[in-house]
């Protein structure tokens, strides 16, 4: 008996990387899976219908149940069709894993409107659109008298929650928005028996991250903490009918699971019912010891990649950021 026996799941962006690993893991645990993937390049261009079908066919060859879907989740009607494909193909829908994402990494001064809209359209609008149509179906079934556990599992990222990275205005903003939507939708959809949670993988080796400096190569033997499958057990647990969690944003790195608690309140100043002056704030705010974003980034990268940026100070981190921005702009041509 698998943990997902009888569950029907739609997984977006399931043709490669984390989505593929989750789709295969779900099928091995007994779920019937819709493998949604448009088959685009990393930047969202192009399309290849064989990407989704290859994964679905492989799952079927291994004895699982899977169908392919190539609808664009960033398209309103495409998101509706993706949800309908699960209902039409398997008769119901219990789980949605919103995983589809693209990247166009550029600095603010080089990023175009199209660069911003494309990435936000897939990660943020795509999550919203698929969730909307799934929720509409689930509300309909609930009002018809069904009392079945339903689960939405969104996908955020460390870039957006813990360490927003230079060149990722679009991606980080989208992923932070996904985390916020998770909390809102958990509150809104509870009335229909729907739980909403979010997985936030970090330092996972996919085609979006394989060229990141310091990303380890795959391990031939033993546990590989950067393999895409490391995200799958958490997503599977959140998808089980027995899971009671909702409204949680959980970071996953290797075998470490971390509970995120939104933006947390730090030290504060108050004048009671008096209005501050600019001079008073200029004198008082430095005493609160606000975080330096350069040092915060250095600490995050040192921990993830084993670098020693923290020892180089603010100037060293600025040089690294400037070099990354220049390289991204040069790559655009």
TrEMBL record:
A single MF term (Gene Ontology): oxidoreductase activity
Coiled-coil segments: none
Protein origin, superkingdom: Bacteria
Pfam families (UniProt xref): adh_short
Keywords: Oxidoreductase
InterPro entries listed in its UniProt record: NAD(P)-bd_dom_sf, Peroxisomal_Beta-Oxidation, SDR_fam
Protein family (similarity comment): Belongs to the short-chain dehydrogenases/reductases (SDR) family.
The protein's name in its UniProt record: Short-chain dehydrogenase/reductase SDR
């Amino acid at each position: 008996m698998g943990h997902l026996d009888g569950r029907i799941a739609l997984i977006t962006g399931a043709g490669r990387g984390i989505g593929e690993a989750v789709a295969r893991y779900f099928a091995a645990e007994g779920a019937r899976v819709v493998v949604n993937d448009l088959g685009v390049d990393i930047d969202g261009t192009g399309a290849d219908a064989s990407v989704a079908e290859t994964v679905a066919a492989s799952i079927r060859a291994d004895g699982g149940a899977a169908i392919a879907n190539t609808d664009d989740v960033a398209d309103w009607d495409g998101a509706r069709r993706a949800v309908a494909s699960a209902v039409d193909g398997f008769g119901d829908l219990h789980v949605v894993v919103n995983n589809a994402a693209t990247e166009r990494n550029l600095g603010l001064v080089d990023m175009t409107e199209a660069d911003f809209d494309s990435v936000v359209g897939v990660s943020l609008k795509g999550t919203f659109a698929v969730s909307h149509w799934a929720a509409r179906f689930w509300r309909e079934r609930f009002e018809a008298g069904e009392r079945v556990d339903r689960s939405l599992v969104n996908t955020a990222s460390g870039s957006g929650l813990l360490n927003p990275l230079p060149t990722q205005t679009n991606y980080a903003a989208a992923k932070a928005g996904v985390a916020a939507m998770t909390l809102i939708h958990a509150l809104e959809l509870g009335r229909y028996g729907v739980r909403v949670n979010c997985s936030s993988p970090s330092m996972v080796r996919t085609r979006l991250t394989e060229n990141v400096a310091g990303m380890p190569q795959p391990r031939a033997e033993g546990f590989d903490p950067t393999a895409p499958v490391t995200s799958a057990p958490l997503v599977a647990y959140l998808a089980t009918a027995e899971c009671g969690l909702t409204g949680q944003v959980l970071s996953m790195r290797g075998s470490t699971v971390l509970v995120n608690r939104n933006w947390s309140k730090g030290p504060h100043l108050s004048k009671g019912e008096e209005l501050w002056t600019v001079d008073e704030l200029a004198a008082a705010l430095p005493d609160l010891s606000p975080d330096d974003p350069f040092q915060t980034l250095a600490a995050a990268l040192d921990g993830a990649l084993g670098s020693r940026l923290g020892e180089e100070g603010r100037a060293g981190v600025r040089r690294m950021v400037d070099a990354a921005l220049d390289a991204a702009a040069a790559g655009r041509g």
